[in-house]
């Protein structure tokens, strides 16, 4: 009787263990498709602009296919909720991308960044772009950035790099800030792994893609000029 009891108990334990593993998986598999299929088929205020950006038929009417295309864009760039609605933040992001593309290899065509200071890092908050120039000659960029959000805006004006730390750790935000180059009371260029178009923005720093931040680190030095102008959309 003892042997039989032990075998039954062992089998029951194995069955219980398998059940504990299977039940959460069943729940996850059952709910995931519903979440992925959730799509807002309401026509948004920027429907036509968003359709044109995505290469969709521009008819100003939301379809399920439109919704899924918008939803994919939102998911890729961290726009929440990623429901496929052609709203303000989605179009603002797309419009910024269009402005960046239009800048081409002449981001300072309007001559808003000084050309009489030698080597200088320029930051255009409106287009969310940065580049390095020497006089009027473009040396690197333009590349996309992610600047301060509403309430913690990146401050405008003439600055100078005053401190650099290749492996900086922010005690204020408890995050890593690789290739940090500080130019204004704690605001700095530094690398981040977030999408450059991830809203709402940084805590004031100029976030950069890792390769771009590394290049800035190699090209700039303490005392180099930084000029920040414009206004980030939504701030």
From TrEMBL:
Residues annotated as signal peptide: 1-36
Q: Name one GO cellular component term.
A: extracellular region
Pathway assigned in UniProt: Cell wall biogenesis; peptidoglycan biosynthesis
Q: Which UniProt keywords apply?
A: Cell shape, Cell wall biogenesis/degradation, Peptidoglycan synthesis, Signal, Transferase
Give the active-site positions: 190 (proton donor/acceptor), 205 (nucleophile)
* TM region(s), chain numbering: none
Q: Name one Pfam family in it.
A: YkuD
Q: Where is the L,D-TPase catalytic domain?
A: 118-229
Family matches, as CDD domains: YkuD_like
Q: Name one GO molecular function term.
A: peptidoglycan L,D-transpeptidase activity
InterPro entries associated with the record: LD-transpeptidase (IPR050979), LD_TPept_cat_dom (IPR005490), PGBD-like_sf (IPR036365), Transpep_catalytic_dom (IPR038063)
Record-level GO BP terms: cell wall organization; peptidoglycan-protein cross-linking; regulation of cell shape
Q: Which PANTHER family match?
A: EXPORTED PROTEIN, L,D-TRANSPEPTIDASE
Q: What is this protein called?
A: Murein L,D-transpeptidase
């Amino acid at each position: 009787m003892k042997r039989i009891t032990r075998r039954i108990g062992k089998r029951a334990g194995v069955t219980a263990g398998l059940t504990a593993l299977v039940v959460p998986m069943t729940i996850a598999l059952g709910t995931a498709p519903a979440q992925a299929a959730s799509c807002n088929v309401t026509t948004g205020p920027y429907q036509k602009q968003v359709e044109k950006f995505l290469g969709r038929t521009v008819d100003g009417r939301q379809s399920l296919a439109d919704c899924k295309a918008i939803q994919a864009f939102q998911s890729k760039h961290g726009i929440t909720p990623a429901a496929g609605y052609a709203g303000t933040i989605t179009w603002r992001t797309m419009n910024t991308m269009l402005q960046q593309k239009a800048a081409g290899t002449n981001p300072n065509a309007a001559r808003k960044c000084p050309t009489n200071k030698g080597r200088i890092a320029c930051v255009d908050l409106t287009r969310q772009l940065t580049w390095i120039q020497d006089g009027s000659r473009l040396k690197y960029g333009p590349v996309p950035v992610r600047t301060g959000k509403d309430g913690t805006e990146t401050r405008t004006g003439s600055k100078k790099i005053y401190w650099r730390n290749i492996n900086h750790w922010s005690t204020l935000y408890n995050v890593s800030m690789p290739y940090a180059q500080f130019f204004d009371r704690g605001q700095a260029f530094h690398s981040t792994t977030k999408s450059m178009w991830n809203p709402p923005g940084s805590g004031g720093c100029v976030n950069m893609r890792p390769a771009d931040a590394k290049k800035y680190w190699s090209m700039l030095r303490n005392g180099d000029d930084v000029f920040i102008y414009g206004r980030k959309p939504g701030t």
